[in-house]
Design goal:
seven-stranded mixed sheet, two-stranded antiparallel sheet, alpha/beta, Rossmann fold, 9 strands, single chain
Length: about 260
Amino acid sequence: MFWFAGLADGTCPQPVGTGTETASHAKKVDQLFGAIARRYDLVNDIQSLGLHRLWKRRVVALSEFREGELGLDLCCGTGDLAIGLAKRGGSLVGMDMNHPMLRQAAGRLAKRGRNQVSLAQADALNLPLGDGTVDLVTVGYGLRNLANLKAGLREITRVLKPGGRLLILDFGKPANRVIRSVYFLYLALMLPVFGWLCCGNASAYAYILKSLKKYTAQKGVAAVLRDMGYHSVQVIEIMAGTMSIHIAIKQEHHPQIHRGKTL
């Protein structure tokens, strides 16, 4: 079943109570992804030489998602992780704030007959889920784009059950300065080219480098997760740290969080 929350009027929900700057950021990100949704998968294949598919399969395998569980694929985009997770037998909700991306995901899921996946339009800082309701949360290339990373992680923590698993796949920052400099130079030179060739807009993919420079990446995200009380926090670095996977387990007796408040 595919269902869309908030799509009746074609609008995208904005963050609640997070300020004008956050709402502006959310709007810009939403507009950007709406413009590239139709060619998003093609560009990902080209710029990663298809390797992003291997990395996502690794996330699915590490998730240990199984029959009887409920998972949330947050910032689900066109549905790569959702499709992979659905094969493992559990029930899944894919959420994204971008309407065109969700339409692409719906079409792909329908072709594959993955009826146990529901889709909903929602902002990651204000998830329409109850406290402690999901066994697994995955975020593929979405955490870096949130207007407030810590607020997003608090909201994820709120909806995760005690003992629930969180897996995050995203761009990383190589620890080696030489590799990092070459990597950033490659992104600065090539991403505008991809944006122009595939979307007719040089700035369409240039956002990646800008968002990455602001992103706390491997060490920063791991530190925030530990501060929030997660245990067994692991960081798997891919391709010399240019990509990374975070794995974390919510404590069994984690303080209860309600909409940004810890009780």
